[in-house]
Amino acid sequence: PGSMEAAADEEKAGNGHAEGPAAAERSGGGRLRGCRGFLRRNALVVLTVSGVVAGVALGAAVRGAQLSPAQVAYLAFPGELLLRMLRMVILPLVVCSLVSGAASLDTRSLGRLGGIALAYFLGTTLLASGLAIALGFIVRPGAGASALNAPGLGLPSAVHTSKETVDSFLDLKYFIFLFVFYRNLFPANLVAAAFQTYATEYKMLLRNTTSGNVTWEKIPVGTEIEGMNILGLVLFALVLGVALKKLDQEGEDLIRFFNSFNEATMVLVSWIMWYVPIGIMFLVGSKIVEMEDIVLLVTSLGKYIFASILGHFIHGGIILPLIYFASTRQNPYRFLLGLITPLATAFATCSSSATLPSMIKCIEENNGVDKRISRFILPIGATVNMDGAAIFQCMAAVFIAQLNNVDLNPGQIFTILVTATASSVGAAGVPAGGVLTIAIILEAIGLPTNDLSLILAVDWIVDRTTTVVNVEGDALGAGILNYLNEKEQKEKEQELKEVNVEAVANSKSEGETSPLVTHKNQVSNTSSTADPESKESVL
After folding, report:
1. Nearest-angstrom CA–CA distance, 222 and 527
2. Terminal C-alpha separation, the chain
3. How is 227-292 classified by DSSP, letter by letter?
4. pTM score over 0.85
5. Residue 529: band (very low, low, confident or very high) from pLDDT cuts 50, 70, 90
6. Based on the structure, what is the number of domains in the chain?
7. What is the CATH number of the domain that holds 242?
8. Which of 24, 28, 187, 241 gives 20 to 30 Å between its CA and that of 377?
9. Where is the composition biased (Polar residues) (predicted)?
């Protein structure tokens, strides 16, 4: 027996030695399969981030080659194709998504969600403006700024504007009160609104007075400039969706048409998304090559760049996630983790409108936001919610004031807050769309607009974090509205369950004898004593 036990122990030991490498191989294979699965699920995210890194490396490597302007244009061509493809789907995506979203929501839910979204957009924009002004007084980016007119900076010429402040407000594509009508809110030609927007310019007209003196009079002239009137299209799509909802059966066919059109557009977006890493790489690389002297630019305007990016980091990394957590009691960073691809697209393209297709796709597929919410809120947010632009514009106003040794009084600070909140809504969702709106703020507080050339010099840097914060605010707002909508639906279902329970209890108390109202214990007793045919009759 002793020898048999020893042999058995030796056999177990041998099996253990034999199973050791096999177990290690199985665990290694499991880790490899897990890594492959992660890469398969997040391939687009990994490729997009790799495209940004590769673009920086490409731009740094090619800068020393002294490319001609034509060669730089060739380098940026793949990125230009990406921007063109994204802008191509903006119009059908915005119109169809808003029509289908408004038609799928009842009037009460539409008004409630719209009111919450408007309060969220205005509140976060005011917080962003206040944060930027506070950081401007703390960091003081314009104090002691020197070498700003050095020849190596490659600054553009001064920006001239012929708009008056009042007409700039009238031309803004936003509305705060329902009784205020703005020009771009109601386009005269719906087809022209797809590629033109209204603007007011001033012309000097020579007039002869009765006394023989010659005077120049400034006359306002309305004109159509190139650019999509997105807010006019948004308003039309919303009203059309509500009208189709009111038609009931007669509007079902047209609603199904817009739903199908919207789904087909999302399929196109999913195809375009696989080209995003390539386009981003060449966009970032070409922008780095275009700058003449980055070192001198950063050292001269470094405090302004630092203060702007710091404001974007605090607002986008702390304040907005806190608002999301306070509203939903959910982890905001896990929510943002599913939006890496649209955030990287925003960083590369500097366009909220161009990021809209990928944002809608990722927020629905990765974060499970209801299509009715995302396709209703995100197009509106891409137009009217510009938290990053508000920070950028307030910081620029404080910077220019300090550069000109102007001490801002409380009245001017309040004017900057209100004007920046309004003009950030009117900023176009395209690269450098918010620069010209800074002129409105400068005119409102009496500062010269010639220093806007300094802002243009670093806009390509600051505009990237500006766009990221803009689209992040839209996405978190959609997440909050989706949570509130789901909560309301659960409360309605709970109320229905309570009504059903009360109805059953009332029927028991009244002792109804109808065969359609059979109590559970009666069914069980009958089924236990009766034959199968009687069981079927009871059921």
Report:
1. 83
2. 68
3. S--HHHHHHHHHHHHHHHHHTGGGGHHHHHHHHHHHHHHHHHHHHHHTTHHHHHHHHHHHHHHH-S
4. no
5. very low
6. 1
7. 1.10.3860
8. 187
9. 515-531
The whole domain housing 470 covers: 41-149+191-491
Is 514 inside any structural domain?
no
Secondary structure of 467-536 in HEC code, one letter for each residue? HHHHHHHHHHHHHHHHHHHHHHHHHHHHHHHHHHHHHHHHHHHHCCCCCCCCCHHHHHHHHHHCCHHHHH
Residues in the chain: 539
Using one digit for the tens of pLDDT, what is the confidence trace for 21-57? 555 556 666 777 777 776 777 777 788 888 888 988 8
Report if residue 20 sits inside a domain.
no
Cβ neighbours for 441, distance < 8 A, ≥ 6 positions apart: 393, 394, 396, 397, 415, 416, 419, 420, 423
Question: Which residues, listed in sequence order, are joined to residue 218 by a DSSP beta bridge?
Answer: 204
| Mean pLDDT comparison of 22-26, 158-162, 289-293, 478-482, highest-scoring range | 478-482
Tokens encoding 349: 């393209």
Angle between helices 69-88 and 252-273 (to 10 degrees): 150
Of 266, 497, 453, nearest in space to 360 by CA: 266
The structure tokens listed for 144 are: 């002691």
More confident residue, 429 or 226: 226
- Tell me whether residue 302 is in a domain: yes
What's the sign of the alpha-carbon dihedral 298, 301, 307, 313?
A: negative
Tokens of 268: 């196109």
